[in-house]
Amino acid sequence: MATLSLKNIRKSYGALEVLHGIDVELEDGGFLVLLGPSGCGKSTLLNIIAGLDDSSSGDIAIGGRSVSALPPKDRNIAMVFQSYALYPAMSVERNIGFGLEMRGVPAGQRREAVAQAADMLQVTHLLDRKPANLSGGQRQRVAMGRAIVRNPDLFLFDEPLSNLDAKLRVEMRTEIKRLHERLGTSIVYVTHDQIEAMTLATKVAVMKGGHLQQLADPRTIYERPANMFVAGFIGSPAMNFLRGRVVKSDRGWQFRAEGVALELGAGNGELTERDLILGVRPEELKIVQVHGAFHGVIDVVEPTGPDTILTTVVGPQTVIARVEPRFSGKRGDPVAFAVDPSSVNLFDAETQLRL
Ligand SMILES: Nc1ncnc2c1ncn2[C@@H]1O[C@H](COP(=O)(O)OP(=O)(O)OP(=O)(O)O)[C@@H](O)[C@H]1O
Ligand SMILES: [Mg+2]
Fold first, then answer.
1. Which of 198, 251, 302, 323 is the most buried (most CB within 10 A)?
2. Is 354 part of a structural domain of the chain?
């Protein structure tokens, strides 16, 4: 187990800077997810932590010890890649134990470590097989086994589930969470899947274009996103953004747009009368018969099973709501929503930052 500390990590390829000063602190035993769209620098940052790639500047400490000058083998980390990179000619047992074999760990001790990891990952019955005779999920387990037996300070995962089909991905996600809880080893995990980030992380680092957008626990990221990029990247259907104006009302402040009059309460002194953007999650819109803050017309009704996604038109703007599964309204019906003002976020229309 170990803490991880990244200080002002920068990376340039020639004149092109792809990481612009990343600062991250991860607690001992924490699960850090690097989340962001393709090309934002997640793998680059992970490879720099691993020592597979050099940063242009900045420092990395694992367990309080700077490892920036150390080669990968001296950082006491274990990495699991998207392409499991198993040795095709070796049995599962030898694949899992190969790192130990290379380091001269005696056969008896090796066998014991492999047996323990295999048991934890439920691949004991596969130890004699070759990787070609395994399913994708089984290969993924073997790759994780190989990392576990090394008993590292830090696991590094780069999109480990992206080669699996949707159902298996969900299963392996649970497996990784269980493994983290059992081992307690700190993990850095790269993904562009927001559900993986929400379910696995103790801390999420949302990245965009080589910049860190927000570093926080998943709940904070979801409920209090630092800006509209983070707000829109997490959550499906995405957060609704409505253009409007905040004005004084007899109960404090009110957000107004065509079809919308939402009391915001007294505010915290930061509000002034101004144009801004209201962010409201689809599940925070509650259908009501009276006293609605939003008044619109239903455009599309999509039952998904556990709930119904309603696309509505409020004034000139589209508002998406997640409502009960047996919702019986139809296209063209009027609809009103109430919203708990404590669940909304206000964003500056220029800077896109949360107020
Ligand atoms: N060797 C290289 N030379 C120049 N640019 C590079 C090199 N490697 C990566 N890049 C650039 O650095 C940026 C970050 O790449 P990186 O692979 O870290 O992205 P990523 O977030 O992991 O994306 P993905 O989700 O697609 O894996 C990209 O714009 C990429 O084009
Ligand atoms: Mg990548």
1. 323
2. no
93 found inside a domain: yes
CA 299–ligand 2 middle distance (angstroms)? 38
| Listed range (81-90, 183-192, 292-301) with the worst mean pLDDT | 81-90
Q: Residue 159: name the closest of 304, 309, 71, 34 by CA.
A: 34
The DSSP element (H or E) to which 108 belongs, if any, is: helix 107-120
Tens digit of each residue's pLDDT (9 = 90 or more) over 248-271: 988 889 999 999 999 998 866 678
Q: Is 79 helix (H, G, I), strand (E, B) or coil?
A: strand
Whole-number Å distance, alpha carbon 33 to ligand 2 midpoint, is: 13
- Grouping H, G, I as helix, E, B as strand and the rest as coil, residue 247 is strand
For residue 101, give its domain range: 4-233
Mean pLDDT value across the chain:
93
Determine the pLDDT at residue 255: 96
User: Pocket of ligand 1, candidates 12, 22, 35, 44: which has the most ligand atoms within 8 Å of its Cβ, to mutate?
Assistant: 44
